[in-house]
Amino acid sequence: MFRSEYADVQPVDLPIHEAVLGRAAEFADTPALVDGTDGTALTYEQVDRFHRRIAAALAEAGVRKGDVLALHSPNTVFFPIAFYAATRAGASVTTVHPLATAEEFAKQLADCAARWIVTVSPLLDIARRAAEIAGGVAEIFVCDHAANHRSLIDMLACAAPEPSVAIDPAEDVAALPYSSGTTGIPKGVMLTHRQIATNLAQLEPAITTGPGERILAVLPFFHIYGLTALMNAPLRKGATVVVLPRFELETFLAALQNHRITGLYVAPPIVLALAKHPLVAQYDLSALKYLISAAAPLDAALAAACSQRLGLPPVGQAYGMTELSPGTHVVPLDAMHDAPAGTVGKLIAGTEMRIVSLDDPDKDLPAGESGEILIRGPQVMKGYLGRPDATAAMIDADGWLHTGDVGHVDEDGWLFVVDRVKELIKYKGFQVAPAELEALLLTHPGIADAAVIGDLDADGNEIPHAHVVRQPTAAGLGEGEVMMYVAERVAPYKRIRKVTFIDTVPRAASGKILRRRLREHP
Which residue has the higher pLDDT, 262 or 433? Predict the structure, then answer.
């Protein structure tokens, strides 16, 4: 068993809005959130006051403890305010990908029985259709303005009393993001107030921030990585978060330059752009002190090229998953020059790890040998919503979460993730479940059978690669038609990027797809 070098942390038994905004009065006039496109800025005092007023308005509208509110929005300065307002009113927040189709959104709404939606006017039609399909939604609010919908901006004038809700941080669910785990369709991950807040405290000794630091939030808040690293962690410590709605290279570089960004948390595709795109040379990025990449594997040579070009310490990596609130490993800021190339870091405070044999899960492996990574700690999720069997398959009786990732630890405690036993595809940091795409492909009348695996494109990104068996009557079915069929029905990041036609899908006697055989297919 491997243990963290850091001292254990005590569980943080606070509601997440108190854990993050509890020092707002101390930071008062410090800018908390800045719109990276138009410069709109909100101070800590405003964020604290605004979320309390909107919590009052939500409670007046009927939001009660135990309700689920779906937050369906790109990054805006109002996203954190909506999140903390909902939790203060007693709701659990399920975050929704802003590019989700109405059908995908409706599945999530129905699965978690969400009664409320907060969205933005450009996404309102999708939210309405999703609510109609799912049923059970009492009201749709908007962060900006839209006819016939209450706006969070107007709700700031609410004069109702602030709700006083008894929250049990150890049991009550604060966030309900959806994850595919190691396989299967997306499932609601129940993360309690204590789990999320404690994970922030666990990360703090390795990744410190505070007033004067400026963090660029270009990764989405709806993703647990963005929710933790770009929203909760910096706002807890008095840093300034500059918010961008999406990644567009010129806007991103301008924000880095104009807002004098000091800390950057990204996924590998952004590291690639910083390392290789000619536009980077036209901007002054000299305020940047460090860069951390997570959410997907980062090539060591690419990381080195990026840090060399920007004149930064080596790019640090971090590791975790939604089911772990999400962090378990990170390269500490004060050890970036010492970390070996390719490592995802060391165990954060209060976290234990085992590396077990792939052939014998009861056999623990020593440093230097690769096996499945198991994690235990206060950040392990409460479970999957309404899926006790899936929870039991993920977390064993001794509390060890089986990540489905394969890795090894060196003699100094640095973790290297080398492969996955799980089937999940990570396209630019977003989870793509093969089973979901396979089920969709089988609805095409010309497809008899299908299997989807992760494959690498020319830039080293993992992409969904479909292996398709044509119906005897569909000999003319081509790659373009298959890709278009899927593209019309899923969010852009889930699209099939490559199609191979085969005679039969290899399966075990149990019916399980033998994906390793497909990876060996020429």
Answer: 262
Q: Tokens representing 99? A: 């590019």
Element (H, E) at 250: helix 249-258
Helix (H, G, I), strand (E, B) or coil at 281: helix
Taking CA 522 as the corner, what is the angle to CA 510 and CA 457, rounded to the nearest 5 degrees?
100
Which pTM was predicted? 0.89
Pick the CATH number of 2-404 from 3.40.50.12780, 3.40.630.30, 1.20.120.1760, 3.40.50.620: 3.40.50.12780
| Nearest-angstrom CA–CA distance, 376 and 350 | 9
3-state SS of the chain: helix, strand, coil percent to 5? 30, 25, 45
* Other C-beta atoms lying within 10 Å of the C-beta of residue 367: 13
pLDDT digits (tens, 9 = 90+) for 406-440: 899 999 999 999 877 778 888 988 888 887 899 89
Burial of 448 by CB count in 10 Å (0-12 exposed, 13-18 middle, 19+ buried)? middle
C-alpha distance from residue 515 to each of 317, 403, 509, 519 (Å): 28, 18, 14, 6
Q: What are phi and psi of 447, to 5 degrees?
A: -110, 125
Long-range CB contacts for residues 469-472, cutoff 8 Å, separation at least 24: 469/501, 469/502, 469/503, 469/504, 469/505, 470/446, 470/501, 471/445, 471/446, 471/447, 472/448
Segment 47-99, tens digit of pLDDT: 999 999 999 999 999 999 999 999 999 999 999 999 999 999 999 999 999 99
Residues 6+ apart with CB under 8 A from 458: none
pLDDT of residue 521: 65
Under 8 Å between Cβ of 173 and 192: yes
- pLDDT at residue 511 greater than cutoff 70: no
Averaged over 170-195, what is the pLDDT? 92
Write down the mean pLDDT value for the chain. 95
Topology (CATH level 3) of domain 425-519: GMP Synthetase; Chain A, domain 3 (3.30.300)
Cβ(207)–Cβ(232) under 8 Å? no
Q: What's the rounded Cα separation, in Å, for the pair 297 and 419?
A: 9
